[in-house]
Every structure is written in structure tokens, then in C-alpha cells.
Amino acid sequence: MRVTARRKKKARLGPAKKFLLALCGAALLGVLVFQLYLFIHFRLHDDYKALLPEPYVVEQGQAFSPISETEPDVPGMVLAAENDYLKLYLDQKTANVAVYDRRTGAVAYTNPLEGMSDPVAGGVNKSILMSQLIVDFFDANRLPGRYNSYDFSVSLGQFGFESLADGLRCTYDLGDMSSPTGIVPVYITEERLTHFTDLMADGPSVFIRYMPSGDAPGFLQLNEGSRGMATMRKMNASFAEAGYTEEDYIADMTASGVEGAVPLGFTVPLEYRLEGDALVVSIPVSEIVEAGGGMVHRIQMLRSFAAAGAHEQGYIVVPNGSGSLIRFNNGKTHAEDYMQYIYGLDPLADTYVTLGNSEPARLPYFGIHRQGVSDILAEVEVGETLTLLTASIAGKLNSYNYVYPTFVLRGSSSLAMFGSTGNEAELPIVEQRITDAYLRVRYSFLTPDYAGYSGMARYAREKLEQAGVLTAKSEGGDIPFYMDLVGSVMGQKFFLGVSYAGQNPMTTYADAARIVDDLAENGIRNQRVNYQGWFNRGYYHDVPSRIQPVGALGNVRELEALSRKLEAQGGQLYADVVFQRVTFFSKRFNWQQETSRYYGGGMVAAFGQVNPVTLYNTGALGYIETVYDLLSPRFLRRYVDQFNRNFSRYDLSGVSLRDLGDALHSDRKRTGYISREEAKLVALDSLNALARANGRLLISGGNAYAFPYSHELINVPVAHNAIYMVDEEIPFYQMLLHGRISYAGPPINLSDAYDEAALTLRLLEYGASPHFVFTWESSSALKYTGLNRLYSTTYANWRDTAIRVYQQVNDVLGPVSGSPMAHHEILTGGLRRVTYENGAQLWINYAGEARSHQGVTVEAKSWLALEKEGGAP
Question: Is residue 710 classed as helix, strand or coil in its secondary structure?
């Protein structure tokens, strides 16, 4: 009866229930399939790892042995290494290193010889003058601290030297590394203690001095009564007899996990090598040892190298925008030091509050010109994405002018905590992972024919040419005319009084052809068109994994025809694309999986427009498409490959990169961490893939790592940031590139303070081509779009100005378009002189009255071009 009942009950399962069960099963299967897809498509995607370099090999050092010589070129020091250009000397008592230039007789010291008697520096500032390294750190309680290598290593005798093939290594133990028990471990496992006491003559008497530890479960602990001076002396001898070393001591004490068991301290190696005419200074981060719960935050390297005294003449060259000079002893002792991150601060580490617009440092170079003494050009070769560059002048902290790099190896932040009583506290957060890199700075010692900032730029350019990064352009010819054409942008539209988001075609393909033809008829044939907003919903397009041209602009074949027309007359069309900044409404983008995140709070890297009230740079201001996420470098190459496959279907030979050579960010997830150094390697690989697939690249911003793949550059810095510490702005960036890569600054018609005469003079001085942004439709049509910042773009309004500016600039720069700048001079009263390698000379007068120099007179706010130096116009 029971069996029959059950069968009847089972038979009552009707079609509806069966359908419901089937539906639940299908839903469960769908969830499982989707999770499997996420796991395979995102979490297992680690192709970027193939781009990372193999673990570097640190040279095995040998016992330091000075090179004998009868008459040292640097008295009081021993010779550590030499080559045909330089000699490397060492003071074994202070770790001060000197470089002697055989060609000029100049000597550069890592630390001033009179540092300890400096009349301005007091207390710790004297120690800083004598230090080769300064380590900022967090202790076990995440409280910040600082150790300088003089007070916390050299003066304590905690340093040593090794000879390297072409130099030397100095290893610093920073901190109070002394132990009250010597090498006798306070905590040790029974197994290890037995191993060592078996090797001692008095092993049993040593063993009985340990008891089970209450602080470290599983460990034995040294009895308090066994820590007398006489007992410690005997036990140290016994442990040394058994082969127990300081390294064993640190390992056992660290393994115990007892806070404070190991003194807070750090071991940092600093390497010096001679390579040709340069001193290469390195820190292998993998060899840094952190003890006592300490965590290295950042390291200042050779803060006082080649520092110039208060009596010297000269200047410091810094990559501030286009470049700046900080003159020695300029008297600005109450000003903040010059400080700037190379390639700008990582957006993940930056604040969300924007207090002003500034031009990042786009070059990893800095220099020291000591008039009548020496010229040194420094390049951060490895670790530039982690570098904060600092410069200061005599009279502030000491009597010297100096510039140095700081490598930020760990990020840190703070989390605001609110208690039940309303009290607020800051909880410090420190990243667990240290960025591992073989940090390297090359200090090149220049001969007198490379003196000054002009010589430094020429030296750097020649090195880039030798490396194949820069190649010569053909001499003469019309300079390019750059114009951004805004195609379409999403905006607010209305139908029967109802608003909706739709396409605003600002410059159709046919309109673009009209602009190109009109300019060509007026003598501008070498046009470079950066066509923006042509696919995937316009200017703020979604991820370029697919390409769907905006239909409102016309048939895409018209754009291809325009490209062919431009090429036929010597120009080029570039199709604009954004890879790293993914707009909020983007399709086919999984922001939870593909966005870079900040380590500490797991925050998604999301940015937008600057709210003028709060100054937060995360606002939409009514246009959600202007809010964007940062694509993790992990997935960058995937999108580049997808774009290349789709873009190949179109007959367009140039690609404009809006952000790939302009911004660089890390991904600080706890799992899958990608440092900024690693992100640079991913960006280089993507640039290479884009260049191979698409022929020509127009890159915006122009960070130095993008130079090998840049056919042309726009939005490069043509001014510096007006930091009070700096004295003069110079075209150092342009002196590096002129005659090798064509470039232009920001759009002229969007200048904050439009002054046609001043802008024209700046283009001439900096050898830059004119750059405009145009729309065929009135710019008033952009008012209700996310591009409402483009307030002055109507082609009809700017046509005559563009033609006039181009003709003026082209007449002067055309004959020198393929010639590098040989010399740039800052003369008196607003007068500048630029000399090109082909002998041509250009005089620019910014003053409101005529200026004369060496028999040459230049009218007010005007210029004078000479075919040869000292020749006639």
C-alpha cells in the first residue's frame, strides 16, 4: 500500500511543476555558465604577464679592493673603478663617492666635502647633506618614520662595500640594528636549538637556559636570568662556534612573530657603475630587506649629488612642462621646493580634488649646469613612473643647490573612521606589496661642447638617435597644420517637448571635406586631420572592441575618400580612439572586472568633470557620458587587438591616440596587482601593436616612452607651470624633438587668454605647428552636450585666423622644419634667440618695445629670421 501511495503521489506532478523545475534548472545552469565565463574571460586573462621582464640578476659582489695609484686625482679617497672617460673614488669612512672626469678634470661628489660644517644646515639637515640614501617608512604600527644613511648607518658603522665589475656596491643597514643579546636568539624552535647546541662544546648548558615561550607558541624562549653580561659573552661565543650567524638570528626572531623581537631596520644596497661617460646608480629593490615590521614607503637617492655651493653660478634643469631653469642662489628661500612626478601622479594615488590645472613632466631628464665647472645630464632609466623629482636652492635647508629623484615604492592612504560618539580617527593603510624594479639613474658627464641646457638637449637627442628612437626628417618643406574635427557627440535633444539623448553631428564627413578643400585653396596643403567622434556613439565612445561608425555623419566611405584626398596633397587623416578611459555608458564593458581599483579600500577608479563648487573631479554635471572608468592594464592589449582587427576593414591609414601616450595608471587590486612600471610595459606593447597594424600614429600628450611609436604629436607642452621656485621657461622638450618628430601644442582657439601675437611668437620660439579644433556647425550647438567646454570652435569664425597664423609660422619654420635646434638663448628684456643646426637663426621679441643685441634689432612683439648666423634676413 505504501508503494502504491507513493506512485500515486508522484504521478500528481503536473506539467506546471515540471516546467518550473526545468526553469530553475536552466537558471542554475545559466548562472554556472555565466560564472564560468567570468572566470575564464576575466580572472584567467593574464596575457600581460608575458610582457613582464624576467627576474633581474643582481651581480655577485667581491670583497672590496681599491685600485692602487700613485697620485689620486681625488685626494683622501681610494680608486674603486675607472674607464677611458671617468674615475670612481670612494671615502671608506663616510661612504662619500666622487666621480673624476678625465677629459675636463671636473669632480662631482655624492655629498659636499664641507657638509658637516655647513653654516646654514643645522641638526638633521647636516646629516641629510652627508647621506646617500634617505628612507621613508612605516613601522609595525603603521606610523611614518625616516632614516637617513648617515645617522642610522654610516655613523653606526653598519655599512660595507663590495667591488663590482665596473664599480662598487655600498650596502647600508639602516636603524638601530644592535641586539642586547648579540646573536643569541631570544626565541628559537627546539629543533633548531638542538641542531646548534649539538655543535657546541657546552651545548647542554646552553640548551637548559631556554624554556617554552608564552609569547611565541611552538618556540623556546631565553630565560631572563640568563641575560647577564658574562653569560651573554659566553653564549655568543658558543653560538658563533656552532656557525650561528646574524642572518640566523634575524630569521629566528622574525619567525617567532613577536612584535619587537627584531629591531626596526632596513638593508638597502646602492650600486655605482661606470658606463662610458656616465655614472649609473642603481638600487635592486629585490635586495632590500625589511625587518621589525617596517615597510619602505619611498627612497630618496643621492640627494646632494653634484650639489653646487652658494658661491657658484649656474642652474638646475627640470622637466616642468616644456622645461624650466632654477637658477642657483635665486633667493627664493621661502618658496616651496620644486616637486613634480614624472608622467604625472598615478591617478589611483591622486586626490579626487582638483585645485588647478598643471602640465605634467613628460621627460625623465634633469640636469645640473655648474658654470665653468661641469654639466651633468641625468636620466631616470628604470623607475621613472615611480619618480618624484625635487629641486631646491641654497639658503633654505643648507648652503647648496641640488636636484634628486625619490622613488615611491609603496602607496599609502588613510581611512576615516567614525565612532559612536562622533569622534573621527584616521586609520593608515599601507600597501603590502613593494614595487620591485632595478631602479637606475644615469648621470652623464658632458664635455664643454655640450654645455648648458641646449647642450644637454642635444646630447639626449643624439642618444635617442643612436638608439633608433628618433630619426631625421627631410629638410625643408611646409610644416604640418593640425586640426581636430569634432564629428558627433551625444547631447540633449527634444521631440514634442520630451528630451532624450541623441547624436549631435557637428562636422559630417562632407563638412570635413569642405574644410579641407577650403584650407588647401588658401595654401594649407600639409593638413593633419584628427577626426574625433566618428564611431560607437561619438566623441565619448564606448570600448573599441567593435567599430560602428556614426550614421549621422554620412557614409563611412566618404571618410575613406577624405583620407585619400589628404594623402594625395601631402596630408594625413587620423581616426581618433580612446582606450584607457572608458565612458560610463559604454557597452561590452564589465566595470566590476575590468576597471583598475585602488588597493586600500577597493575603490573603482572612476573620474569625470570638475565640479566648480566642490572641486571634485568625479562629477557628471548633467552629462553621464563624461564620467569614466580607468581600464585595467590587464585588459588593454585585448581591446587593442580587437580594435586593430575591426579597423583593418576601413581604408584609413592613421590612428590618433587620445590617451595612450598621455596618461599612465596602475591597477592596485589585492590580487592581480599591476604596478605603474608594469603598466608602462603593457602600454609600450600596445603602442607597438597599433603602429604595426595601422601605419601612422598621432599621439596626444607625448610622454617620452611613446616617442618610438610617435609619427606626430599634439597637445605637447609649450609652456611650463608657473611654480614660484623656477626662474625661466625653456623649450627643452622641443629641443629634443625638433627635426625628428613633428609636434603641436594645445588648440590655439581654446587658449585661456587668447592673444594672437603672443601665441604666434610662442609657436615660432618653440618650433611648433599651429593646432586648432573645429566644428562645421556653430559651437553653440555643443551647449547641451558633454563637450560644452568647446566654446569657440566654429570653423567659419576661425578660418581667417587659422590661415593667417599658419602662413606666418610656415614662412619662418618651413625652411628649418627638418633641422634640430642647436641652441636656445634667453637674452635680456624678453628677447630670445634660436639657432638651428642648418645655420638659420630666429630672433623673438616678446617685449612691448624694440630690443637690440649684438647689432641685431627686433621690433616690439615681433620676430626676425636670419638665414645664417650673423647673416642678413
Answer: coil
